[in-house]
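Need T9SS type A sorting domain-containing protein's 3D structure for a figure. Predict it.
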Amino acid sequence: MKKQFLIFLFSFFIQIAFAQNNQLWKGYFSYNEVNDLTESPTRITGATQKSLFSKNLATNELKTVTTINGLSGQDITAVYYSPTFNKTIIGHANGLILILTESTGNILIVPGIRDQAGLTPNRKRINHFFEHDGKIYISCDFGVVQYNLATLGFGDTYLLGTAGQEVKAYQSTVLNNFIYVATAENGIRRADLSNPNLNDFNQWQTFDNGVWTGIVTHNNQIVGISANRVARHTGAAFATITSLMQPGVDIRSYQNNLIVTTENHVYTYNENLSQTAHIVSTSIPEMTAAFNCATVIDGTIYIGTKENGIVSTEVLNTATFRVIKPDGPSKNNIFAIQTTPTGKLWAVYGGYNVFYVPDVSSNGISKFSENGWLNIPYSDVLQAHSLSRITINPSNENQVYVSSFHSGLLKIENDVVVTKYDHTTQNGPESLLYTPDPNYKSVRINGAGFDRSGNLWFNNSRVKNAIKVLNASGSWQSYSIDGFATGYLEQDYGRMAIDKNGTKWFVSSLNGVIGFNENATAKFRLAASQEDAGNPLIKNAIAVAVDNRNQLWIGTMQGLRVLPSVDRFMGEGDLETNPIIIIEDGLPQELLYEQFITDIVVDGANNKWIGTADSGVFLVSSNGQETIHRFTRDNSPLPSNSINDIDVNAVTGEVFFATTAGLVSFQGTSTKGNDDLSQVYIYPNPVRPEFLGTVKISGLINDANIKITDIEGNLVYETTSEGGTIEWDTKAFGKYRVASGVYMVFISSKDGSETKVKKVMIIR
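Structure prediction for T9SS type A sorting domain-containing protein:
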């Protein structure tokens, strides 16, 4: 029976210019893990999980393409450069295709496979692209799809099962006008491209019944990978070329070179299938290399690795290796970040899961500065696992402490890990007691912070003395949670915030948000709402933050709560927390109702940046009544809607988002208020006709009054600053754009003791 399956009668697409509307965003991606390569005589391009990077082989220029430039943030699984059309085609795990026009930098979004009904949703992954006569044959987990690069439209879909069912296609190739496809379940399937009915599965034959994971055309013969075997087809049967030491993971033919890759080996062959080079990962000095793919361009081998970007060497001289990759952090899945007053940023990679189970993988620490990225490897962090939080000494930003949720507390001096405080430190951190194995040690340090006296406080999970302090003098002190919390030997602790009274607020796995003040009569108190009594909401607290009005904001797995004043801890009343009620569509609603909140950060204007587990980022006003921004993967360069951590540079207003798929930042306008008006500046100035953004006035003090008038003294705008920066949309009270001219900016402090006058020129 003839079966037809057309994927689309037309192709829906959107064109996005690189960097369009993304001028306020920056990307800080890792380029270490290269999943696929594509080549041309003048360029090598590597695809990572979320980005591309390429090297011009003539100029050595490195170029990156990320979500900042218009990539989707979906997992990239295949990439191919078409020299005929000068386009790079990018395939994703969910079936989405992007087409990058290299000459213009425009990206075409082709959602046809991703959005096609009738296909099994989890079988749309794109595995490989093959070009023939202007058409791209797209190997997917369900079959093969044809796409015309000239018309930018889809052709037929080929379901290659012997009964027309979905079958995973690894790779395709063409020889003598026959298309060959290596499939997961039905061997190599073959059909005649001159047949107009190839969407009928009956027109396909089984070329070979073996298990083939890769197939290419090399020197007018079919060559494939079957487990540990590389074989060519003689016209009658497959003959083994070589037996591999490991299963093959990639095969390709380029410039008369056949390249076969396994996890730890790369083999190259000439057009006569004579071996020309053999690279073993252990032969590459100063790195532990594992391979994903490889190619050869003009006698140079380029290897896509799992942890070291692209490594290159010469076919005729494999003793020298070079690393090709842009600067970046070690990994994209960053667990926690922290900025410094001078604009540096620290990052760690985890961590623990939602159940506080430590991640004991071997990760290091990263630091970004004006000199680029410094990546401190695991070998230099004193064998500490599960690095979860960064705490910077406010009196000395070259002194950094890193919490480990398994190995204690690390101290870093001038970018070098110098000390690890753990169960062997006298009077210091303690290990939990694991009854089945009393020799097992796990020192779980997490939330930490400095008080005004320079003492470092932190929580220590699953021990009686849950609160620790490393005094500025260097001595240690502990405080027992026994008598306040039950089941403390099974209780884990999370983030910590210290308020103006020296009260330490931190989240716990069993008791919700706990406040601790060593100088209070009741040293421990619980922040909870009566309506949440017995409810898991407040117990599932994840994040705490003290805002500029001394309110405690609490993020939980099921929503948001606020303690109206941290001063209540020192009083006798209950620490009653409340939801924030907003009016939406005329009805009262709870702000962020049932959202899984992962972090809360307060900016210079007392607005709150709130990260979520699967809904992106919210910026809400100081009282929560207005949502100023909502960023997701669909409307912004966020590479993932799953936010691990957020931090704000208080001086510049740059907001950093650590997601499960990469680090990006947004140039916010809320900065910390200055001490005086001596540093006021306006940008851009002048405002030129092509500029469509807002004018920023920075260097302000809190509660400054700003009046803007035309040259004749007519008032066009007035506001009061919250923090160090305000924005003006160059409109007269939001109604119409002001005309060209010079405008006066009058600034005064709340009591009138300080004033400043600036000018801004607007050119229409």
